[in-house]
């Protein structure tokens, strides 16, 4: 005779079932892309026809994909660099300046995360047309800086807030000017967060679609190229192979960003 399960055990089993169901619902559609990318058929359906690498091999000689990839990499590098530089500046002034103006700038910098991407895209399209720039690579960079800025500000603000202000105050007492205090005393302790902010900003820009859709000129980014190819059934296996590679790179970059972010408490504890 076995004892009946207690209410706490029942809740634990229910919670475990909920977690498993949630993970399957969240990641099963994503897992299907790598599976079908190795399928020897243009149809994304079961049963699988066989294993092949021809879809990956066809990526190497595709000039359109290469052009879109280079375009996305250039835009992501520039946008992430500018967004990280602005994020470091805004977050430092917010934490150490502690003025109403710096707090206002910090709040406005984080505001775009609450605005729908469609609204941001339409607003930026109107702006670039008014100033004569028009849809172009430069316009996409401007839009992606706006999209990535909240991420960099939030990460750097948290890091600067975790650094004891006594360090900056001690440097100031020894005669160091504000910029020297920032460069020699505070910034070296924040480098892991800078790397994490840049990595996440790069990934955000590289994968961004909505703003790029409104601002792209004659040179599409990689997400726009993938979207355009979905109209052609024969291109679907190549698109899934490309999506698998992007997914793998994204996982690596997110892991790097998370490792950099987790280094911060250890450094703080080791001071």
TrEMBL record:
Q: Where in the cell is it found?
A: Cell membrane
Query: Which SUPFAM superfamilies does this chain map to?
Result: MetI-like
- Would you tell me the Gene Ontology cellular component terms? plasma membrane
Q: Give all residue intervals belonging to the ABC transmembrane type-1 domain.
A: 69-257
Q: Which residues cross the membrane?
A: 15-38, 50-69, 75-93, 113-133, 139-156, 189-216, 236-257
Q: Does the keyword Cell membrane apply?
A: yes
Q: Does the keyword Transmembrane apply?
A: yes
This protein's name: Spermidine/putrescine ABC transporter
Q: Say which species the protein is native to.
A: Aquibium oceanicum
């Amino acid at each position: 005779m076995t004892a009946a399960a207690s209410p706490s055990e029942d809740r634990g089993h229910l919670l475990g079932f909920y977690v498993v169901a949630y993970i399957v619902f969240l990641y099963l559609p994503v897992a299907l892309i790598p599976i079908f990318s190795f399928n020897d058929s243009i149809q994304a359906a079961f049963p699988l026809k066989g294993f092949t690498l021809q879809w990956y091999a066809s990526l190497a000689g595709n000039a359109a994909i290469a052009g879109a990839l280079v375009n996305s990499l250039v835009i992501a590098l520039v946008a992430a660099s500018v967004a990280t530089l602005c994020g470091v500046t805004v977050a430092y002034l917010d934490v150490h300046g502690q003025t109403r103006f710096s707090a206002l700038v910090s709040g406005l910098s984080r505001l775009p995360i609450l605005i729908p991407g469609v609204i941001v895209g339409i607003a930026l399209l109107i702006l670039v047309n008014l100033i004569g720039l028009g849809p172009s690579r430069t316009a996409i960079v401007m839009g992606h800086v706006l999209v990535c800025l909240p991420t960099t500000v939030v990460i750097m603000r948290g890091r600067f807030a975790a650094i004891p202000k006594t360090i900056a105050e001690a440097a100031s007492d020894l005669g160091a000017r504000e910029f020297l205090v920032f460069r020699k005393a505070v910034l070296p302790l924040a480098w892991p967060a800078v790397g994490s902010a840049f990595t996440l900003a790069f990934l955000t820009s590289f994968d961004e679609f909505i703003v790029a859709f409104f601002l792209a000129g004659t040179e599409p980014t990689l997400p726009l190229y993938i979207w355009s190819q979905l109209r052609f059934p024969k291109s679907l296996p190549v698109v899934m192979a490309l999506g698998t590679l992007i997914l793998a790179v994204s996982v690596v970059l997110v892991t790097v960003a998370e490792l950099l972010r987790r280094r911060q408490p250890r450094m703080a504890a080791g001071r």
